[in-house]
Amino acid sequence: MEVIRYFLDFVLHVDVHLNELIALYGSWTYAILFAIIFSETGFVVTPFLPGDSLLFAAGALAATGPLSSTSLFVVLSIAAILGNMTNYWIGYLIGPKILSKREIRFINRRHLERAHAFFEKYGGITIIYARFLPIIRTFAPFVAGIGFMNYGRFMFFNITAGICWVGVFIYAGFFFGRLPVVKDNFSIVLIAIIVISTLPMLIEIIRRRKQPAQ
User: Fold this and answer.
1) 182 class by beta-carbon count within 10 Å (0-12 exposed, 13-18 middle, 19+ buried)
2) CA–CA separation, 18 vs 32, rounded Å?
């Protein structure tokens, strides 16, 4: 319970915790952020890690000086791309063996099924679309690996998605994070980002549930 409470506090006050990290670790903060962004999509068991809100908060801090927006963009784009690559190869090499089990420890089968449904609907561009959808983005490269998606095609979408995702949220934080109305209501802004990010996925789930059974 304590872990859950701390995690929620970190997500809702990520700007405060980032300032603490900078005070403690200085330039090593880039390595810590790299590890979080890499892990969010690099391992299928870590979809709970913050992504959009963390990037926005990091960009906002860059606007006031402690971090460099350019360094954040480069370092975290690489983290996002490498994370997807890792998850693709996990899916490619051991995904079929994992799925052959009736119960998958630490992996939510429903999340896998939703990611698979996105692939069925959108094809390879799912890698780009999923980047902006929490949870789905963690499972999308894993499903791509399981489905033996052509690696060159996967990497094209992966690189495009990683650069676009990181760029959008880092520079949104950089340009809007310094506005008084955003600074004074930062937790509310982060909640809004999370809600807006998950909205398309929720709409898709509701739409599918309303469809008559075949």
Assistant:
1) middle
2) 10
178 three-class SS: coil
Question: pLDDT tens across 51-101, in order?
Answer: 888 899 899 888 887 889 999 999 999 999 999 999 999 988 886 676 666
Q: Compute the distance between CA of residue 143 and CA of residue 113 in angstroms, rounded to an integer.
A: 9
Encoded tokens for 123: 């094809």
Q: Are 56 and 169 in contact (CB under 8 A)?
A: yes
Tokens of 172: 């949104």
User: Which stretches within the chain are classed as H helix?
Assistant: 2-12, 14-25, 29-42, 52-64, 69-99, 109-122, 126-130, 136-146, 151-176, 180-183, 186-210
Euclidean distance between CA atoms 2 and 155, whole angstroms: 39
